[in-house]
Input
Amino acid sequence: MDVELARTFLSIVRAKSFVGAAEELNISQTTVSARIRSLEEQLGRPLFHRSRHGVTLTPPGEQFLRYAPDIVHLWQRARQQVAVPRGRRAVLSIGAELGLWDPWLVEWLRWMRGAAPDVALRAQVEPSERLLEQVAAGTLDLAVAYAPHHMPGLRVELLAEEKLILVTTAEDGTTVDPDGYVQVDWGPDIARRLDPALPAGVEPGVFVSFGPLALAYLVAVGGSGYFRQRAAAPFIAEGRLHAVAGAPSFSYPIYAVSSASRSDELATLALAGLRRAAEADGAGRAG
Output
């Protein structure tokens, strides 16, 4: 199957229309329609319900949506491996959740560049579920994730046992201003445990999906919030933040996820790089 058919299918799903997909792909609507007609003929099933309000997926379309992203990613991965940059012997790819790219991906890239200068590196940031799907499909070599769901064929290794602690800019180290609380999206698992533990009267006025951004805002503007202990440690040492005594903390384990079927030299090296990143993160925060 032409990979462009799957790519066009996904574009229609995102845009919810053939017109929107044509604009996104910079092709004519006629070409979009022809590609989907060809795809439907190959699969033997209609993929979209069409109406003047847009398009929706048919049940076969919903089923194909489970596989289309992997078709595209596998093609991209194959193209990357076949077209290894000149002077490199292979390509390694890594992904991390949004809140974990710093320092994990930064340190991994730095270490790998020194340990394997003849290997091309690719890094990306994705939601945890998508990262696991790509590792399972073989389109990603390695992922860094918080509390990943176990999937068949995946190897999960604990990298660091992090904690989320409540910090404040108040000099007394105890004041949690209800209006100055910054809420960070640490994921649904953490939210279910953390939200009931918030001090009474707290109504977050600032919501941030990215921990480092929220921490920078807190230090600059003032207030309180839950953050990774290691990330907050330098500011606590400088007296710019204070850990709230008696406030509950929450475990935030960080894992490396890789394919259980891979044990080659490159896969082993990539995992070693993440372990070094974990050591560097711990040493850096402690120092």
About this structure: The chain is about 45% helix and 25% strand.
